[in-house]
Structure formats: structure tokens, C-alpha cells
Specification:
398 residues, Butyryl-Coa Dehydrogenase, subunit A, domain 1, Butyryl-CoA Dehydrogenase, subunit A, domain 3, four-stranded antiparallel sheet, binds flavin-adenine dinucleotide
């Protein structure tokens, strides 16, 4: 059963993070966007406050050892994600912690690997992990990765390029997906933890983006990169049944609701800003010629975001109850990404010229939101996942 009432703990977490978003993150976010970087002092300060992807009560995207009881870890994580993205999504995805790299280590790692790779986040200094799957020729089509790996003695040798990797340059390690033979498709995938400083591993470009400009998006290059055999996640036995590819997919089941929650957070920020500004205008100018149109648009924004949030909470609650949720996670991601994009566009529209001003929030949210319909699986791909689940029981493939 999914209960949509928040518990006392959940309310307390949400309220604390809202405070952090408003008083710590917002004052810095516009300048961070302008400069294309999140100041390290802010990330240090947030870590001191316990706001990292690993120490959040929900455990964040890393599935880290947050203090939340197991049965509300995901629910808390989506509440946290919405509030932090309301503050600023670029800062939220730059928070120290294992990030998207956490779930594969949790899912596949041996006890020694978990301690070795996740233990570093107990360090008082900010540290990052990252998740490197996407390649120039393999985005949505994950099975098409071309980064190769071959075994040589007690090492694996990796060759290839990864693109658009969040926190990939600052990370202490990257979870890297490679293949022993591209012709094998999913069965050939292997998953490595590649530590910074590994010979043959270099960071290429830091990519300029339209939105989430303050978040670091890196190109990673592996050129005869020699990775110790003990960094193959889970050991070789784990890969007999296509486990590498499955791990990539399972990671998304946990993280798509979080990304959807962030989209709701940005959409809500744009909606609240628009509502408050228009309320001021409407109070000052009477009669109000556009009142009916504005009221209708605002109520549409609120309604759509509310619906998206409920889908997010459902997907997260199912994960907490260990109910398979890949259809619901994809529905939440597809819906929230689209709705929040439309809400941000409506905010620009309703505010007229103010909506386009580069020194104001709405223009930034309009740029930031687009990526939420792209990363962690595009909107089209989410809709495809849902369609597949609908037809599966009838033995039909979409
Ligand atoms: C800011 C940012 C951060 C990112 N962070 C990471 C990260 O940390 N780690 C990582 O590995 N990757 C990351 N990515 C990459 C991201 O996951 C990919 O961009 C995404 O999976 C889409 O892949 P693509 O860009 O190659 O687009 P493509 O797969 O080439 O898609 C192009 C278009 O074709 C559509 N399309 C593709 N296949 C189908 C299909 N079967 N049916 C219908 N339509 C289809 C897509 O929906 C899209 O509209 C990040 C990307 C961005 C922009």
C-alpha cells in the first residue's frame, strides 16, 4: 500500500532541506551558473550540514549508508531531491558523494569493494564518485557501448571514450562500463571501478552546456588504461548471466524517481516564482484584464506538478517496499520531465520580458529543465520502456 501522507521524519527532512535550499544554495546559484562551477566552499559547507548524496537520510542516489530506515530510504531521497533542486539542480547534482556510481557498487560489489570504494566518503573532505556509461555512439542504446576491456595477467586493459559524465573529472573513481566484445551485446558488458590516477586514464573536455551550467560534465578517455583485476565489480563469476548490463538498468530503476523529483523541484520553483510575482502585479493593477487566463495557467501548473509528484512518490515507495518499479520509475521520469519543461516554458511566457532576463531565475530554470528529459534515459526511451511493460504479458515486443 502506498501512503501519501508524510511521516514526522519525512516532514522534518523536507523542511530542513528546504531551509538549506533557500538559505545556503539559492544565494550562490545564479553566480555559480554564470561562472559554470559550484564553489567548493559551498559544497564543504553543505557537507558540514550533512547534505551530501551519502549522508542524506535517504542515502541519496548513492544508496549510501544514510540513517533512514530501509523502508523509507527512497521516499526520503525523492523528498530531498525535490527540495534541493528547488534550491538549485546544478548544485544538487554536484553534491559530494558516490552519486550515480553508488548503486552499481552497492548492487554488484563484494564486501571488500564496498568498503574500499564507499568507505572514502567518510572522509571529512568532499569526495565524489561517478557513473560512466554514455559514449559518442551509445546513449539511449546502452547495449551499443564500444569501450573495450581485455584481460592481461592481473589487470584489465580498457580503451575507449565516455561522454557527458557528471562529476567525472572531480571523482575519486568512476564506475566504467566496457565490453569484452561489442559483437556479444549485453552479454559482453563488464563493470569496473577506475580510480583517478590509473595509468592510461585521462580527463578530456569539460563540456559547456545550455543548462545546469554549474555542474561538471566531463569527457573521459581510456587509452590502454590498466585497471587492477580486483576493480572488476563483483568478480568475474558475476558476469555469466549478462549481469553487467542488468546492473546498468537496475541503477536507473532507483535513480529515475530521484531525477524525476528534481524535475518537479525545478518546475515548482518556476511555478512559485511566477505565482508570487503575478499575485503582486494583480494586487497592484485593477481591473485585471488577464485574470482568467492567468488563473487557469497557474492552476494547470500546480495540478500537473502535483500529479508528477504523486507518480514520483509511488515509484519511490514501491522501491522501498521492494516491489519491481521499472514501469512506474519510467512513467514518473517521462511525466515529470515533460510537465516540468512545459511549466518552465509557461513561466517564461506568463512573465513576459522578465521571464527572459538573464539575471533572473526563470530564464535559468527554462535552460536547466531541458536536460531532465534527456539524462537517465530520454522521454522517448521512458515511454518505450512503459510500452514494453504493457505489451510484455501478451508476448509482444515493442
Ligand atoms: C548534463 C548531462 C549529464 C549527463 N550525465 C551522465 C552521466 O553521469 N553518466 C552517463 O553515463 N551519461 C550521462 N549523460 C548522458 C545521457 O544519459 C545521454 O545523453 C542520454 O542517455 C541520451 O543519449 P544521447 O545523448 O546519445 O542521445 P541519443 O540516444 O542519440 O538520442 C537522440 C534522440 O533519439 C531518441 N531516441 C533514441 N533511441 C530511441 C528509440 N529507441 N525510440 C525512440 N526514440 C529514440 C532520443 O529520445 C533522443 O530524442 C548526461 C547527459 C547530460 C546532457
Amino acid at each position: 500500500m502506498i501512503d501519501f501522507e508524510l511521516t514526522e521524519t519525512q516532514r522534518a527532512v523536507r523542511d530542513f532541506l528546504h531551509w538549506v535550499a533557500e538559505h545556503e544554495i539559492r544565494p550562490v546559484a545564479l553566480q555559480a551558473d554564470e561562472e559554470g562551477d559550484v564553489p567548493l566552499e559551498l559544497l564543504r559547507r553543505l557537507k558540514e550540514l550533512g547534505v551530501t548524496l551519502d549522508t542524506l537520510p535517504g542515502g541519496g542516489a548513492s544508496g549510501g549508508d544514510g540513517e533512514a530506515p530501509e523502508h523509507q530510504r527512497n521516499r526520503l531521497a525523492v523528498l530531498a531531491a525535490e527540495e534541493l533542486a528547488w534550491g538549485d539542480a546544478a548544485v544538487a547534482i554536484s553534491l559530494p558523494g558516490a552519486g550515480l556510481g553508488g548503486p552499481p557498487v552497492q548492487l554488484m560489489g563484494t564486501p571488500e569493494q564496498k568498503e574500499r570504494f564507499l568507505g572514502i566518503f567518510r572522509d571529512p573532505e568532499p569526495r565524489w564518485g561517478a557513473y560512466a556509461l554514455t559514449e559518442p555512439e551509445a546513449g539511449s542504446d546502452v547495449a551499443a557501448i564500444r569501450t573495450t576491456c581485455r584481460k592481461e595477467g592481473d589487470h584489465w586493459v580498457l580503451n575507449g571514450t565516455k561522454l557527458f559524465i557528471t562529476n567525472g573529472a572531480r571523482a575519486s573513481w568512476n564506475v566504467v562500463f566496457a565490453t569484452i566484445d561489442p559483437a556479444l551485446g549485453r552479454a559482453g558488458h563488464r563493470v569496473f571501478v577506475v580510480e583517478r590516477g590509473t595509468p592510461g586514464f585521462t580527463v578530456g573536455r569539460i563540456m559547456e552546456k545550455m543548462g545546469l551550467r554549474a555542474s561538471e560534465t566531463a569527457e573521459l578517455i581510456f587509452d590502454e588504461c590498466r585497471v587492477p583485476a580486483e576493480n572488476l565489480l563483483g568478480g568475474e563469476e558475476r558476469y555469466r548471466q549478462g549481469e553487467g548490463f542488468r546492473t546498468a538498468m537496475q541503477t536507473f530503476d532507483g535513480t529515475r524517481p530521484m531525477v524525476a523529483a528534481m524535475a518537479v523541484g525545478i518546475g515548482r520553483a518556476a511555478y512559485e516564482y511566477t505565482r508570487d510575482r503575478l499575485r503582486e502585479e494583480l494586487t497592484l493593477s485593477r481591473p485585471i484584464p488577464r485574470y482568467g487566463v492567468i488563473a487557469e495557467r497557474l492552476s494547470w501548473m500546480e495540478r500537473e506538478l502535483h500529479a508528477a509528484r504523486l507518480l514520483v512518490w509511488q515509484a519511490a515507495s514501491m522501491a522501498d517496499q521492494r516491489i519491481p518499479n521499472s514501469k512506474e520509475a519510467s512513467m514518473a521520469k517521462a511525466y515529470a520531465g515533460t510537465v516540468a519543461t512545459r511549466v518552465c516554458a509557461a513561466a517564461v511566457e506568463l512573465l513576459g520580458a522578465v521571464g527572459l532576463r538573464h539575471d533572473r531565475w526563470v530564464e535559468k530554470w527554462f535552460r536547466d529543465i531541458k536536460v531532465f528529459d534527456i539524462f537517465e534515459g530520454t522521454g522517448q526511451v521512458q515511454r518505450l520502456v512503459v510500452a514494453r511493460r504493457l505489451f510484455e504479458p501478451y508476448g509482444l515486443r515493442v
